[in-house]
Amino acid sequence: MKNRILSFSIALAITLLPFLSNPVFCQSHHSAKATSTTNVNMALGNPSNATTSTVNANNYLMQKPQYCLSYNNKNHIPNWVSWHVQTSDIGPVDRKNDFRPDDLLPANWYHVSSTDYIRSGFDRGHQCPSADRTSYEENNSATFLMTNMIPQAPNNNRITWMHLESYCRSLVFQGNELYIICGVYGQGGIGSAKPDIVRTLQSGVTVPAQTWKIIVVLPSGENDLSRITTQTRVIAVLMPNTQDCSKHPWQNYRVSVDSIEHLSGFNFLSNIPENIQKVIESKVDNTPVNKQI
DNA sequence: CTGTCGTTC
DNA sequence: GAACGACAG
Fold first, then answer.
1. Whose C1' is closest to the CA of A159: which nucleotide?
2. What residue is closest to B6 (Cα–C1')?
3. Is residue A292 pLDDT above 70, yes or no?
4. Which residues touch strand C (CB under 7 A)?
5. Which nucleotides of strand C are protein-proximal, with an atom < 7 A from a CB?
6. Rounded distance, CA A257 to CA A237, Å?
7. In angstroms, how far is B7 C1' from A274 CA?
8. How confident is the model at residue A290 (pLDDT cuts 50, 70, 90)?
9. Per-residue pLDDT averaged across A77-82, rounded?
10. Selecting from 3.30.470.10, 3.40.570.10, 3.40.50.880, 3.40.50.11440, what CATH number does the domain A38-282 have?
């Protein structure tokens, strides 16, 4: 009996240790300024008022140490995924490639599997990128849950979108931390299998028409949203989920946050004071980007 | 030319 | 596990 309790305690400690030492998770506890939420990954707000009620199946909130999302059970893809990235999130861990269903979805819902995208002409496109979560194995592994994936046209995913992801990481290495949120809009994309518009994969997963992303750039520092001012750089893009997306670099797809709000009906950056939101959401980023990334 | 990143099969 | 494409350096 004694041994059992002892071995259970050890098992518990082993289970909890990586979790408790995970900087992403720990930081979520002292993001004092994040008002309605304690998770650093959605510190700037919950753009669709997603909830953890299973009744709210098409706007179902999932909070993970690595990222947060609103899941759409009708479309079988997330409405949006939100995360925070800083230098400590990027480490030595190899890409795990363990694409798999997300067991944390309610048991009676359809669980998208890794094979649902097979031969569809669309990539299993990460929302929170693998390369933004390489500090610990479990953090990288978490990005391969299918609730973090959308059917993404290969040229969108591997070229234009990836260049923006790389550019974001270069901003982190230059001494910034980023609050990122991205998601989908509409239905019907053009993948690599045929030149026609595809509305759903054979497995029933919705193919979005557009992908969008919003990046708030802050110099690395204490996790305090009061540092966000009218001068804070915000990059927002909206691009087609098609193969010819890559005809232009991501810079050409820059828009205002306002325009994505009008399109989607979401309310972004809602934890920032209104007067500041007003200014930074109406601008279109025009910072020159030297390299072709 | 090698390394990185995101993929497919 | 092998191979691919698009870069960056």
1. C6
2. A158
3. no
4. A 158-159, 163, 166, 291-293
5. 5-9
6. 8
7. 41
8. confident
9. 98
10. 3.40.570.10
Percent composition of chain A: helix, strand, coil (DSSP 3-state, to 5): 30, 20, 45
Distance CA A50, CA A174 (A): 33
- Average pLDDT value for residue range A236-264: 97
The 10s digit of each residue's pLDDT in A17-57 is 343 334 444 343 333 343 445 799 999 999 999 999 999 99
Find tokens 């609730």 and name the residue: A147
Q: How many Å from the CA of A163 to C1' of B2?
A: 20
**Per the structure block, which two tokens stand in for A54?**
């299973």
| β-pairing verdict for A176-185 and A210-219 | antiparallel
Closest CA to A189 of A145, A123, A140, A137: A123
Query: Whole-number Å distance, CA A193 to C1' B9?
Result: 14
Closest CA to A227 of A218, A236, A216: A218
- Domains of chain A by residue range: 38-282
Q: Considering the entire predicted model, what is its pTM?
A: 0.88
Mean pLDDT (chain A, rounded): 88
- CA–C1' nearest nucleotide, residue A246: C6
Alpha helices (H) in A1-90, listed in sequence order: 2-20, 23-27
Residue positions of A annotated with a catalytic role? 126
User: Would you say residue A16 has pLDDT above 70?
Assistant: no
What band does A13 get if pLDDT is binned at 50, 70 and 90?
A: very low
pLDDT tens column, A84-117: 999 999 999 999 999 999 999 999 999 999 999 9
Bases along strand B below 7 A from a protein CB: 4-9
